[in-house]
Each structure stands twice: as C-alpha cells, then as structure tokens.
Amino acid sequence: MAQKVYAGVTVDVNEEGYFTNPSQWTKEIAVEIAKQEGIVLTEKHFAIIEYLRNRYNSGEALSIRSINHSGVIDVKTFYQLFPGAPLKKATKIGGIPKPASCV
After folding, report:
1. Does any domain span residue 84?
2. The pTM is what?
C-alpha cells in the first residue's frame, strides 16, 4: 500500500492517489490536495465534499446523477467547481476511494 504526506500527515492511498482509509482525511489535507489539482476550495466545494463523504459513509453509490439530485448544487456548478473530471477530483480531494462509476 502506498502512502502520501499531506499537511504533515501520512495517509494511505492507492496507486492513483485515492485514500484507502477515509478516516485519515481532514479539511487541511483537502486544501493541499485541491491545490495540487489547481483548485482553491470555497464553502461550496466543502458543501459538496461533505455531501459526498456522507453518502459514501452511508454506503450509497456515488455518481454525477446523484449530485444533480442532492439539493446542494446542480451538475453545471459541479463541473465548474471541479473542472475536467468532477466526481474523480471531488472524491480525491474529499478523501474518498475512487467511485466504481469513474473510469
């Protein structure tokens, strides 16, 4: 198992850099990962990250479609907040293992 150091904390990650132990995640770590992805986190970012972490922790599948039905933000805003591959970036920043729906 690989490890990375973010914000002075060593965390367990897979070969793609996704957390394998989401309990190691902190907001400080999220800020550092986001910076590496070229994203400056705002309260909107943290709202969607919290939504995704809650869904993950309750065992629900994560998908872009679920974001649209979240009531937190719409899909267009999700793509603006996490450009390129929004679900992949949001889960990586949020300390969640890569969703099965992401290739």
Report:
1. yes
2. 0.91
Asked, for residue 65, whether it belongs to a domain, the answer is yes
SS3 string, the chain, reads CEEEEECCEEEEECCCCCECCHHHCCHHHHHHHHHHCCCCCCHHHHHHHHHHHHHHHCCCCCCHHHHHCCCCCCHHHHHHHCCCCHHHHHHHHCCCCCCCCCC
Catalytic residue among 3, 59, 102, 103: 102
79 within domain boundaries: yes
How many angstroms separate the CA atoms of 40 and 26, rounded?
16
Q: Is residue 49 part of a domain?
A: yes
Domain total in the chain: 1
- Is residue 52 among the annotated active site residues? no
Share the mean pLDDT of the chain: 92
